[in-house]
Amino acid sequence: MDCLFCKIVAGEIPSKKLYEDDQVLAFYDVDPQAPVHFLVIPKEHIACASEITPENSQIIAHIFEVIANLVSTLKLADGYRIVNNCGVQGGQSVPHLHFHVLGGRDMSWPPG
């Protein structure tokens, strides 16, 4: 498979890991848009939110549990933003489900 994030999961491409278990990987974004900016991805390839099914949806709950633990560890109590882009027009540049977690600065609204 020619998926950038699958290659990161497989260890073929290095990343600055923040958290890993048997289901998910969290790592810092290579082009951070905030003082704290990391991604959380399922290890299983799911292209985007449109591919969430009853068979794979439990991974989403686990991802949000991981995010809750990480933002606590990183002391983002003043707030943070979770972003999921889906599809090209939605701004998704890597076709593998992922959640950006941004914090450490005030966030504006509406975003881009």
UniProtKB/TrEMBL annotation:
A motif (Histidine triad motif) lies at residues 96-100. Residues 4-112 form the HIT domain. SUPFAM superfamilies: HIT-like. Transmembrane segments: none annotated. Pfam families: HIT (PF01230). It comes from the Bacteria. PANTHER family: HISTIDINE TRIAD HIT PROTEIN (PTHR23089). This is Histidine triad nucleotide-binding protein. It comes from Clostridium facile.
